[in-house]
Amino acid sequence: NAGVTQTPKFQVLKTGQSMTLQCAQDMNHEYMSWYRQDPGMGLRLIHYSVGAGITDQGEVPNGYNVSRSTTEDFPLRLLSAAPSQTSVYFCASRNPLGQGNEKLFFGSGTQLSVL
Amino acid sequence: GIQVEQSPPDLILQEGANSTLRCNFSDSVNNLQWFHQNPWGQLINLFYIPSGTKQNGRLSATTVATERYSLLYISSSQTTDSGVYFCAVNPYNQGGKLIFGQGTELSVKP
Questions:
Q1: Considering only CB atoms, which chain B residues are within 8 Å of A31?
Q2: N or C: which end of chain B has fewer CB within 10 A?
Q3: pLDDT by residue (tens digit) across A49-75?
Q4: φ and ψ of B22, to 5 deg
Q5: Rounded to whole angstroms, how far apart are CA atoms B74 and B93?
Q6: Are the beta carbons of A43 and B31 separated by less than 8 Å?
Q7: What distance in Å separates the CA atoms of residue A16 and residue A14, rounded to the nearest whole number?
Q8: What's the confidence (pLDDT) of residue B92?
Q9: What are phi and psi of B79, to 5 degrees?
């Protein structure tokens, strides 16, 4: 099992450019989520999904779009990048609530710089 | 929203020492998890612990949900324990969101 796979690992964008951060998991997890990590701010939830076709906003959703067409994939889209979106982005997945073991597993992260 | 507070914010230990990290939360939760972020940025799940005590080698964790806190114990610390430790909680009636504390940065010196 590869677990949670994120691509790319590093990306530099210019202000106003768009891009998609990819996330895939092979653990058949229904729940997937995106976090951003900034110095002194911990990990903040951007968007999450409890299953294919279902997404919802987290703590800091503005400037980001998501969709969930399959159980395996949960891409994060930046429509018009801004310097404030410079951060490290983590994708994570787990079993749904109520199954008794809802450990969250993280990908290796994407370091994004917006100039 | 729920507040998750970790203490201490940073900690320096000599190799072989023991330590206790604390996580307080302001509202009822479904579950709580502890993570270690190593110096290369990788986030590893240490414990899924809604209540009670669990042990994994030199690490153990205890959650007292009724009093809204959890403790992570590290015994006989090693330099590889260095990094940032996060606790994260899933608040009731919030659709499975996991909210993180600010972390405790641990440095273990040889």
A1: 96
A2: C
A3: 999 999 999 989 999 999 999 999 999
A4: -120, 145
A5: 32
A6: no
A7: 6
A8: 86
A9: -60, -30
Q: What is the pLDDT of residues B27-57, one digit of tens each?
A: 999 899 999 999 999 999 999 999 999 999 9
Distance between CA B103 and CA B87 in Å, rounded? Answer: 7
Question: Measured between CB atoms, which of A33, A45, A103 is closest to B33?
Answer: A103
Residue A100 pLDDT grade (very low, low, confident, very high; cuts 50, 70, 90): low
Give the nearest chain B residue to A38 (CA atoms). Answer: B102
Residue found by looking up tokens 């939760």 in the block: B29
Contact B72, B34 (CB under 8 A): yes
Closest CA to B69 of B19, B17, B25: B25
Which residues 12-71 of chain B have a CB within 8 Å of chain A? 30-31, 33, 35, 41-45, 48
Cβ partners under 8 Å of residue B33, min gap 6: A103, A104, B45, B46, B47, B48, B49, B87, B88, B89, B98
Instruction: Indicate which of A37, A47, A57 best probes the interface with B, i.e. most B CBs within 10 Å of its own CB.
Output: A37
- Using the Cα atoms of residue A32, residue A37, residue A41 and residue A47 in order, give the sign of their dihedral: negative
